[in-house]
Specification:
It contains 10 helices and 12 strands. The protein has 217 residues and is of the alpha/beta class. The chain has a single domain, classed as 3-Layer(aba) Sandwich (Rossmann fold). A 5-stranded mixed beta sheet has the order 2-1-3-8-6. The two termini are 28 Å apart.
């Protein structure tokens, strides 16, 4: 699946990187100072890269959590959105990501602990909703990123007024099924009519499979 891994120097010794390289031992490894050197360079062809994306392992240095607009929220209190990945496994032709970034490569921010610290500081200020899945699908690459396990461990230890929404089109729910449900974590599946999905949502699991995943949860 991944044939080239770009490694930002700031996370070169990170244990999650070690696990990633063990998962893809044959992948070419390329070092970079900052992920933007690869991700933001000019004259990239998004459609060609989408055929075989590389993965860029990086650290999110700032702006890890951003305030969400009031109309974006689903509950009381403040709202924040964040992404542990940039870009998506799927190829929905209407998705804003296809015009937002120059590159189709995946950027994976490995520094979950810093995201967690930011979340704890915001939760201390009062009731809050946190939305994952703005710049990516929350669960599509979960077998690689282990994000769901980390997020569930985090929110299991936070006050009940800290709530997480995982936005997804994926059926990668194994890590969710392996543990007891949390009252403050919601998995939100998105759908379009079958005719639209078949025409425009390439690589996305069939509606029937996503509904089956919802039923299991």
């Amino acid at each position: 699946m991944i044939s080239t891994i770009y490694i930002e120097q700031a996370i070169a010794d990170h244990p999650r990187l070690t696990s990633l390289l063990e998962r893809y031992p044959k992948a070419a490894q390329v070092s970079c100072e900052r992920y933007g050197e690869v991700f933001n360079r000019k004259a990239q062809n998004f459609r060609l890269q989408k055929l075989k994306p590389s993965l860029i392992a990086a650290r999110k240095h700032q702006g890890r959590l951003l305030p969400s607009p009031p109309e974006y929220r689903i509950g009381e209190g403040a709202g924040y959105y964040f992404s542990h990945l940039l870009n998506c496994l799927y190829d929905c032709r209407y998705c804003f990501l296809q015009g937002m970034y120059r590159s189709a490569h995946y950027v994976w921010f490995l520094n979950y602990e810093e995201f967690a610290q930011d979340i704890r500081e915001l939760v201390a200020q009062g009731p809050s909703w946190f939305y994952s899945g703005y710049d990516c699908d929350s669960l599509a690459l979960d077998p690689v990123t282990g994000f769901a396990d980390f997020a569930l461990d985090l929110f299991a230890d936070l006050p009940a007024h800290a709530r997480l929404e995982l936005r997804t089109k994926s059926t990668q729910i194994r890590s969710l099924l392996a543990r007891e449900p949390l009252q403050n974590v919601v998995t939100a599946f998105s759908f379009t009519p079958a005719a639209v999905g078949n025409a425009l949502e390439l690589k996305v699991p069939a509606i029937e499979k996503r509904v089956a995943a919802m039923v299991k949860l």
